[in-house]
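Figure S7 source data.
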Amino acid sequence: MSLRLRLNLMVAGLNLGFLVVLTWLLVDNHRSSIQEEIEAAHRVTVQVLGTAAQTSRVFGSAPAVMVDYLQSLGRVRANEIRLYSDDGVLRYTSPPATYKAGRRAPEWFEARMRPRLEGTVIRLPGARIEIVPDASRAVLDAWDSMSAIFLLGLGFVAVLHVALLLFLRRLLQPTEADAQRLVATTQQLAENREVMRLIQAGVEEERKRLARELHDELGQSVTAIRLIAASIARSGESGGAVQGSARIDGIAAGLYDSVHRIVRELRPAVLEQQDLAAALTDLRREWRVLHPEIELALTLEGDLGDLGEAVTLAVFRCVQEALTNVLKHAQASHIRLAVARREGRLEVSIEDDGRGVAADGQAADVPSAGHGLVGMRERVVALGGSLDAAACVDGGFRVSMVLPLQGDSE
Ligand SMILES: Nc1ncnc2c1ncn2[C@@H]1O[C@H](COP(=O)(O)OP(=O)(O)OP(=O)(O)O)[C@@H](O)[C@H]1O
Ligand SMILES: [Mg+2]
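Tokens for the predicted adenosine-5'-triphosphate complex:
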């Protein structure tokens, strides 16, 4: 969830809370004031009509006198007055309210605000007066004033919300200086990447040259020594010369093998083949011969044929270093090497089942001042990718890389 959305929701929540509290306070306030008003009006009406009833008894024929009196009294606020003769005939009922005539508050609101108040019956000779509290006008007043306040509050809250959001937007908007700094940093990063890429390319070029020199100079010289030693052995008669030349040939053969191995390492097959899948398959074949005690499982996924020299070489070199690290640090018996081309990127992982994590939760070997992982990361970052290397929680060590592939669809 973005920061802006979170702030939006927070402000909306606060505003909503404010409205709820405001409504609750208004309802509470109006309910008690309606209760008090209706009670007071009812008490006064009962007193007035009670006094009139006493007087009517003195004058005799109660219903007729009372009807005249009630008609002259008219409507009393917040009360319905009805006069029934003893035979049950309705002789008088007070006129309907003219105040806000024809309007009522919604039924649910009336039910909530109406005071719990019983009506009063005043007995007369031959008749009875019923006085029923009628809170509908007071409730309608409360409804009108609350609606106005609520709408006003809503408008205020809406304006406040918009103002706050505009303010926050301004506050969160990067300034001109921020934007310039960001652009400068991005440029710097791109330049650094380019420099690293050029350095890597230079290093590879230098390796190629060294391999060539070693092969052409040293390799050929050693071959020449071996040929001379062979001719001495053929022509020599004394046993000492034959033995000596055989030793020279043996040493020269060893030297030749060493030179070849160095040349192969300096100039991996991948440089010639340009095919990562073939180069890794070769590497595994070689591994099986040299380290049969550690099983290397290789999984390849997707087309690894046209990755380009930079990516192919970077991956190959990183795999070489990770495998060397397994030999040096892991004491593993299994390695899983997986390379997959997926959704515009190349994912590579090298995982072993070695001693990766010590009892204290740290990598078994305290990371040394080695250059292997640093160099791997530099290679990957130079190509716009990322690398993670860490001991696995359940043992072993894992190096994983992700490299973007230009031209692949995301
Ligand atoms: N497979 C692994 N298992 C356990 N620890 C590892 C593994 N790979 C790397 N490490 C740890 O990470 C450290 C850093 O590795 P890195 O390759 O950078 O340095 P190095 O191998 O010690 O030296 P260099 O590669 O420069 O010869 C290692 O010293 C080791 O502690
Ligand atoms: Mg290393």
